[in-house]
Amino acid sequence: IFIYVNIIIYIYNMGKDMKHLKLYENFKNNLIFESKMVKSIEKICKKYSIENYTISSDGTVDVTGDVDLANNDFKILPIKFGKITGDFECDNNKLKTLEGSPTEVGGTFYCQINELVTLEGSPKKVGGGFYCSHNLLKSLEGCPNSVGGNFFCSHNQLTTLEGGPSYVGGSFGCQFNQLTTLVGSPKVIDGYFECDNNKLISLEGGPKEVGGTFYCSHNRLKTLEGGPNSVGGAFYCNGNPIEVIYDLFGSFKEYQDSLDYGYLRGTDIVKLRFKEALEEIGKRLPKKVPGYNYI
After folding, report:
1. Helices of type H across 55-155
2. What is the pLDDT of residues 222-232, one digit of tens each?
3. 247 φ, ψ to 5°?
4. 174-177 long-range CB contacts below 8 Å, 24 or more apart?
5. 66 in Cβ contact with 87 (< 8 Å)
6. Helices (H), the chain
7. What is the mean pLDDT of the chain?
C-alpha cells in the first residue's frame, strides 16, 4: 500500500509540473509572438516615416502627429491604428476596405481615390474634414456622425445621403452621384453645399440653412420647393427646368418670396398668379415658359 500511495503522489506531482511547463511554454510563445509583432510594426512605421507612435498590447498604433500612407497601391492598410492626433492620409491607393483605420482622428481623414464600396471601419470621431470622393460608394453608412470640417463624397455612386454625418462644421459636397433626393443631409451647413450633377427631382430633405453658396445645377429640378430657408452666398440652379423661372426673379430671395403667390403646380403655372408675382418686382409676364404650361 505504501508503494502504491507513493506512485500516486509521484504521478500527481508530475502532472502539476507538466501543467506549469505548459503555462511557461504558452507564456514564452506569447512573448515571442509579441516581440515579432512589435518588430514588424516598427519596421512598417520606419518604412512609411511614422514617428512619435506607441504600440498597444493588442497591436494598434497611436500616433502623435500625422500619418501619410497615400500613393502606395495598398489594398488593405498595413497596420491597425488607434488614435491619431493629426491628419490621416490613405488616399490614392487601391483600398477596398477601411479596416485598420484609426478610431479617432484629430485632424482630417483622407480616403479619396480608392476602390471603396463601404465606409465601414471609418473613424468614429474626426476633428477636421472627411474626404471620400472618387470611390465606388453607394451608401454613406459607416462614416462618422460628426465631422468638424468639410465632408466631401462627390464622384461616387451614391443613391442616398442617409447614413451620412448629422453635423458638418464646414462645407458639404455630394456632386456627381446618382442622387434623386437630399434626404439624409445635415440640416445646417456653415460653408457651401454642392449637390450639382445628380438626378435630383426635389430639394426636399436638404439643408435648411447654408452659410455659403448653394449649388444644385444640372439636375432635373422643376421646382425649388423644399430648398433652404436661408443662403448666405449665391444660389445656382442652372441646367434645370426651373432655371427659366428662377432667372426671371434674379435672386434666391426674390424667387423664394414669389412662391407665396402659389403659381407653381408641378409643370403647370397659374398664369394670373404668376403675372402678379412678376409685377411685384417690375417684370412682365412672358408669352411662354419652356417646359411649363399656363393654366
Report:
1. none
2. 989 899 999 99
3. -65, -30
4. 174/198, 175/215, 177/153
5. yes
6. 2-47, 243-249, 252-258, 271-280
7. 90
